[in-house]
Write a structure and sequence with these properties.
There is one protein chain. The protein has nine helices and ten strands. It is an alpha/beta fold. It has one domain: 3-Layer(aba) Sandwich (Rossmann fold), CATH 3.40.50. α6 links the parallel β7 and β8. The longest helix has 18 residues. The two termini are 35 Å apart.
């Protein structure tokens, strides 16, 4: 399986108190293979979101490199429109990325018109995108505040899909949702990956969700990758003490099918919640 994204020696520092730098990422080496879901798990403050921003060229690097299909990814000072089309991010709370004065249709239309769609073509594409993420056409006229958390997340996914990406970074995509809605959104993501051939970087503090969604898992602690392996390997035989502590805190047990993505499919596709 070829590497879609390669990270070598990635280091990011932020200014700290009294002039001391805070190391957010420390010499990260990582690969994301085409067509897979690589889960990144770690506690709050471990560097997960900083890593996501660095992969998209949105975060200045102090050292190291990031490449996408062999092409270097620059920092935020350089515009990279090809990368923006190929790679997108879905946030924990999509409401923050939606204009509160824009209807769902207007939010999607903004992206589609930027990509050169005519008004008529954008309207048709909006209807298709809403259908693809399991939302009714009536949602198109709603403002973000009128939607449920699950509906807003579906709109966020639809906006990401509007540019026809091949790589999605999912940054805590279900952590703000209740358990039943989480399952529907995760099933939707699995369906979209299968249908569109997407590659995912799935970021979460919830090791149980990461286990169920991921082909491989990278464990992040204090800005370092302390362990990488298949989901089954990480759950069955964690090598690092931090990984073992995460699994113990989540009270995970190796059950039949544990560590495989089949465990999430307890429900059918989402219904718009």
């Amino acid at each position: 399986m070829s590497a879609l994204v390669e990270v070598r020696g990635l280091t990011v520092r932020f200014p700290g108190s009294r002039g001391a730098a805070v190391v957010a990422l420390n010499g990260i080496d990582l690969e994301v293979h085409e067509g897979e879901t690589l889960g990144v798990v770690g506690e709050s403050g471990s560097g997960k979101t900083t890593l996501a921003r660095a992969l998209l060229g949105l975060q200045r690097r102090d050292a190291g490199s990031v490449s996408y299909r062999g092409e270097p990814v620059a920092g935020p000072e350089v515009r990279q429109p090809r990368l923006r089309r190929r790679a997108q991010i879905v946030f924990q709370d999509p409401e923050g990325s939606l204009n509160p004065r824009f209807t769902v249709e207007a939010a999607l239309d903004e992206v589609l018109r930027f990509r050169g769609r005519t008004k008529e073509a954008a309207q048709k594409e909006t209807a298709r995108l809403l259908d693809r993420v399991g939302l009714s056409r009536e949602v198109a006229s709603a403002l973000p505040h009128a939607l449920s958390g699950g509906q807003r997340q579906r709109v966020g996914i639809a906006r990401a899909l509007a540019v026809e990406p091949e790589f999605l970074i999912l940054d805590e995509p279900v952590s703000a949702l209740d358990v039943s809605v989480q399952a529907r959104i995760l099933n939707l993501l699995l369906d979209l990956q299968e249908e569109l051939g997407l590659t995912y970087l799935f970021i979460s503090h919830d090791v149980a969700v990461v286990r169920r969604m991921s082909d491989r898992i990278a464990v992040l602690d204090g800005g370092r990758v302390v362990e990488v392996g298949t989901a089954a390997e990480i759950v069955a035989a964690p090598a690092h003490p931090y990984t073992r502590a995460l699994l113990a805190a989540a009270q995970l047990e190796l059950l039949p099918g544990a560590g495989t993505r089949s465990g999430i499919r307890e429900r059918g596709p989402g219904t718009g919640a």
